[in-house]
## 1
Amino acid sequence: MKGEKEKEEISDIIVQESFLSVILNKEKVITLKCSPENYDYLGIGFLYTSGILQKKEDINSIVVDEEQKMIKIKAKNIYPHLESSWRDGLIPRGSNRLDEKLISKLLLVKHFLKVKSGIIFS
């Protein structure tokens, strides 16, 4: 019939997200939102880029538990300043609350960029 819209089934790739808890020497450091792949690289990469780990030789063991969404890392020679920082709450440990020190830093942002969706999707 004229004017009738056809329904079409489509299939497309979508992003899947997961959470990963990074445990260092039996202490939870952070929970990251990530794609559910390469947990080992993500966990080690986070600790390395945060300055907590300095070199790969300091890593004693890595255990990835995909079912529990966590990576357990045992390491030596952890940068002591950062180790105490996550214990003091300066580095978030994955809870859903923001630390007051982090909130005060976020409040320093004075400008926000707003973009209309039509510009992005045109």
## 2
Amino acid sequence: MGEVVAVRLHRRSGHVGLSMLDVDDSEPVLRAPELVPGGGPWLVPGRDLVQRTSTAQSLHNTPAPEAPDERSPAGAKALKSAGLALATERAKVQQLEVELQVLRAANNRHQTHAALLDADVMLGRQQAAELSGVEREIDRLRRELATTNRQLSDLRKKLRAVRKDEAVPDQVFLDPDKDFDFRLKYSWAVQIPASEKSRLPLGRYRIGGEFLRSLRDQPQEKQKKACKAIVDLLVNDPAKLSAREAHQLRTAASGGSPAVTRNGGQDVCWRLYIEQNVAAARRLHYWKCADGVIELASVTVHDGTQA
């Protein structure tokens, strides 16, 4: 009685409690508070309530109790009971130490989990901020796209107006040959860039007997496409002719059929594409004559074999 010992103060469910189970001898002990200002702590480690001299004197004056005789049955039973009680208390202490270790490990896991959750929260906030920035950028691009579309629509309207003003009349010359020659040269002037006109002049040609009739039978849009194809033919640009797949006209659909010729084989009939990948695509048939002149033969559909 009266011994000063170190304990741990804790709160559980709103109640204050004391425990000696998890007190380590190496831990520092907090200083007890002062009950009277300037009077010092009310409790000091090592200073027991009963003076040691009084204890020694009391012990000196009090006769020592007789120790139980181990040889007697009662003494042996008492020692055995004390040993069992001590072993039980030691087992309880060990069990409490195990539970304490388990609780500390669980606490560490909880702290690690809490740290991971904090990191997830920070990442989520960062991603939310980035998403907000992306959404603002999308809104800005949408506004820019709407403005661009309006500008493009205005430009298309102006382009249609310009094309309408610059459109070639249906008939410029009364003579059909002169009228076609004008339209062909106009198409060449528009189609060939200014820097390329000296390199790609319009070559010599003549109009076959059925050509103008076959051309007039086509819709206006097809006639314009035919003029563009004839320009590519007469400037004799290998790349343009290759793109239009210029080839000899055969007497039959099979590849081994002989070419269509005249004048004893001196003039050979050729064909090139006016348009591709459309239904009833138009083709241009023409003669490569012995004198080097291109004679325009007809405008026909893709499967025609007549010159």
